[in-house]
Design goal:
546 residues, alpha/beta, 8-stranded mixed β-sheet, 16 helices, binds flavin-adenine dinucleotide, binds 3-acetylpyridine adenine dinucleotide
């Protein structure tokens, strides 16, 4: 007898659905599959549930979407019973929530942890996906759902000499479970993206001296984080159905103030007062002060100027403040950071900033690191250098579709998908929050629920119709890719060297990876396509050509 993964005699464990990833996406996908009476299994490289919130345990990690929005909406009892303590939940609380969900819906019994998928291939004759793990097991299913996340492959700190460094080094995205005590140490942080901006104020509280190495400054807006009040939580919970419904059809998947006027249509006084008002609210509200912040460079520059002035007000040393002011990309075109005391941290005597823009890091040395200008000594280094985003987690797996076609080859010039859900030539393979879907430009919880529900509705439809093969049509895919790029070109996003365009990885194709046409609009498109019998997909049953 073979065990479920066929370890003993290499027989395969066979399922209706094999899901890769046990973060919010994979967990909900499993729950929905069970509801349809499908046999499903989830595979994850991690030792427990949580995905992002399992791996990213660095000090200061927390969400940047309000907790009341950044949570599942699919179960009324769950959303009523769970209590968030802060406006933006810290990572340990989000992880407790994930664990609670896993227990509540008894998910772990169908999740195989410590299981890294290295290859997946579609067997046309059997209409099966075979997934291979790093230990040589094979898991097979009619459908393969890749719930591998958009930010789950940390970028390797590929610096010369790293192996010679005498002290410990860390990547924010692979933080030790036991935590790190920086008390009394000289510490370097490399990077100034969201992970760095969250962790720097916390590390500064412990370190003897903290040196931040900045290649590009980022815009950050204040979180004004605080404990949630009983009254505000009660109000939301009493109206949770309507609250969630608003998020489902909104531009960005959460309850926030949307813009109703162009920045050109307001007087200077009104512009400043509106920006001040939104600044006082904090978070992403600032990004939507005017309807054209993301599309009109002149309006964007007004907001960018305002944000730069705020940095100058918060940082005591004018030279440091100037270094922290972003000047090479429009406001919000790199992921906007939401900060707690970030800029004030540079006023502390034990914190200094090194500008890498003219003198990049040349190598890591046994004692620290050297830029092209100077050598520095440290006891520990923290790399907050980001991820091989969006396509990285998918292309990390050697995926072969119909006729042995390789996804890596198909996507050599950038991803090609239909709705970020399916790929032509790769039947019965779905991607949750895949490239060319709104994903990272939204509240990901909304995006995840929308994708998982769309996929599970589709699987239910296939089951009811006695079908078992679905594949995106080439033409529909071509049109979607074109539409994606056209919409991106109506925005300022492509102007920034961000991970949204793959600029953070050497050699990564420069295209726009997420869909920027708005979450509510995207949902309408997906719903219409499903209502028309999955227009743009070819449906069939095994043995027949799809
Ligand atoms: P993930 O949580 O990334 O889970 C994917 C899982 O797949 C991982 O557990 C991984 O181990 C597994 N996996 C991947 N490849 C393989 C493989 N080959 N074999 C086996 N297992 C594999 N989004 C927001 O909307 N708001 C926020 O405030 C927010 N904060 C964030 C903070 C941080 C630090 C980061 C990194 C991201 C944040 N995000 C945020 C985005 C976040 O990734 C999503 O909100 C969400 O958690 C993604 O869930 P997921 O299940 O789709 O993917
Ligand atoms: O990664 P990043 P992140 N030498 O890519 C620098 C989500 N998230 O982990 O800008 C020197 O944003 C790099 O410099 P540059 C969120 O979606 C959310 O911080 O490329 N520096 C940059 O400063 C976010 O966008 C939260 O010039 C190097 C930094 O490292 C996404 O995850 C918290 C370098 C990387 O920034 C990724 O965020 C955390 C090098 N060789 C993450 N290589 C919330 O707040 C890279 N850098 C909810």
């Amino acid at each position: 007898m073979a065990d479920q993964a066929g370890n003993e005699n290499r027989e395969e464990a066979q399922f209706d659905v094999v899901i890769v990833g046990a973060g919010f996406s994979g967990m909900y996908m499993l729950h929905k599959c069970r509801g349809l009476g499908l046999r499903a299994v989830v595979l994850d490289a991690a030792s427990d549930v949580g995905g992002t919130w399992y791996w990213n345990r660095y000090p200061g990690a927390r969400c940047d979407i309000h907790s009341m929005d950044y949570s599942y909406s699919f179960d009324e009892d769950l959303q009523q019973e769970w209590e968030w303590s802060e406006r933006y939940s810290p990572q340990p609380e989000i992880l407790s929530y994930v664990e609670h969900v896993a227990e509540r819906f008894d998910l772990r019994r169908d999740i195989r942890f410590d299981t890294t998928v290295v290859a997946a291939s579609y067997d046309e004759d059997a209409n099966l996906w075979h997934l291979e793990t790093s230990t040589g097991e094979t898991w097979s299913g009619t459908y393969c759902v890749l719930a591998v996340g958009c930010l789950s492959v940390p970028q390797k700190p590929d610096f010369d000499g790293l192996d010679q460094f005498k002290g410990p080094w860390y990547h924010t995205g692979l933080w030790p479970h036991e935590g790190v005590d920086f008390t009394g140490l000289d510490v370097a942080v490399v990077g100034t993206g969201s992970s760095a901006i969250q962790s720097i104020p916390q590390i500064a509280k412990q370190a003897r001296h903290l040196t931040v190495f900045q290649r590009t400054p980022n815009f950050a807006v204040p979180a004004w984080n605080r404990k949630l009040g009983e009254e505000e939580v009660r109000e939301i919970k009493e109206n949770y159905t309507a609250y969630r419904e608003y998020a489902r059809w909104s531009e960005s998947g959460y309850n926030g103030e949307e813009a109703h006027e162009s920045g050109h249509d307001v007087s200077e006084n009104r512009r400043i007062s509106e920006l001040e008002r939104r600044w006082a609210v904090g978070g992403f509200t600032v990004l939507s002060t005017f309807s054209d912040v993301g599309s009109d460079l002149e309006v964007n520059e007004m907001v960018a100027d305002f944000a730069r002035d705020k940095i100058r007000q918060r940082v005591d040393d004018p030279e440091v403040a100037e270094l922290l002011c972003p000047k090479n990309h429009p406001f919000g075109t790199k992921r906007l950071c939401v900060d707690i005391d970030y800029y004030e941290t540079y006023n502390l005597p034990n914190v200094s900033l090194v500008n890498l823009s003219d003198a990049p890091i040349e190598a890591i040395t046994p004692d620290g690191l050297k830029t092209t200008e100077k050598a520095y000594s440290f006891d520990a280094i923290v790399f907050a250098i980001g991820f091989d985003a969006m396509t990285g987690p998918l292309l990390n797996i050697d995926i072969k579709g119909r006729g042995g076609q390789s996804l890596r080859e198909k996507w050599v010039d950038g991803p090609q998908t239909y709705l970020g859900l399916g790929v032509a030539g790769f039947p019965n393979m779905f991607t949750v929050t895949g490239p060319q879907s709104p994903s990272v430009l939204t509240n990901m919880m909304s995006a995840i629920e929308q994708h998982v529900e769309w996929i599970s509705d589709c699987l239910g439809y296939m089951k009811d119709q006695n079908l078992d093969c679905i594949e995106a049509a080439e033409e529909a895919e071509r049109d979607w890719v074109k539409h994606n790029l056209e919409v991106a070109d109506t925005t300022l996003y492509p102007q920034a060297d961000s991970w949204y365009v793959g600029a953070n990885m050497e050699g990564k194709p420069r295209v726009f990876y997420p869909y920027v046409g708005g979450f509510g609009e995207y949902r309408k498109k997906c719903d219409a396509i499903a209502a028309e019998g999955y227009r743009g997909f070819e449906l069939g049953s095994a043995g027949q050509q799809a």
